Amino acid sequence: MNNKEKIRKMLINQRNALSDEQQKQHGQSIVQQIEKITLWHTAMHIGLYYPKNGEISTKPLIQLIWSTPKKTGYIPKILHKHQRLMCFIPWLKNQTLRPSIAGIPVPEHTKKEEKSPQALSIVFTPLVGFNQTGLRLGMGGGYYDKTFESTRNRPVLIGLAHSLQEIYDILPASRWDIPLDGVITEKKSFSFTPKGLKVLQPH
Prior knowledge:
Elements: H1 3-16, H2 20-34, E1 45-47, H3 59-66, E2 72-80, E3 85-90, E4 97-99, E5 105-107, E6 122-125, E7 129-130, E8 136-137, H4 143-149, E9 156-160, E10 182-184, E11 189-191, H5 194-199
Parallel strand pairs: 1-2, 1-6, 6-9, 9-10
Antiparallel strand pairs: 2-3, 4-5, 7-8, 10-11
């Protein structure tokens, strides 16, 4: 087991140890912060994810999107498992989600409704860990890195995390790793790029 795998296993165990109440509080706290950032007030097409294994719940976020006129939330769908590329599907209120490739739930949709990543203003990503340079440690599949590596005019990438997911040890980087523009935890937000600094400013 290499160092990345050890860190990944430790952080997954720690976030899974959080109680349901802690999970709920962290999700609500993060949404309260999102409502205050500059980009929230202009972003119409917003990427998020269906949470699993202790990831920050996006339920409060999608409910906020549904209740806000002219905003649409989208969740990723794997297009090519071997190429590790994703598109995004609109997630509308009361839609049924069905398992797709790799068991990831997506809304029922037509091919025409599939959106490319550059069609989104901002994408809130899940993560296992992050460090002070914006390096994101995921589950190891590489789908986010590969998808956004090949995306021109990349949307703003903001990770959602529990504060315990911050990594202080040296995190080995791979050449295909795409850094985050920022991270929001239940305690505070982090900006790692000029774009992240701009959009995470209070409105």
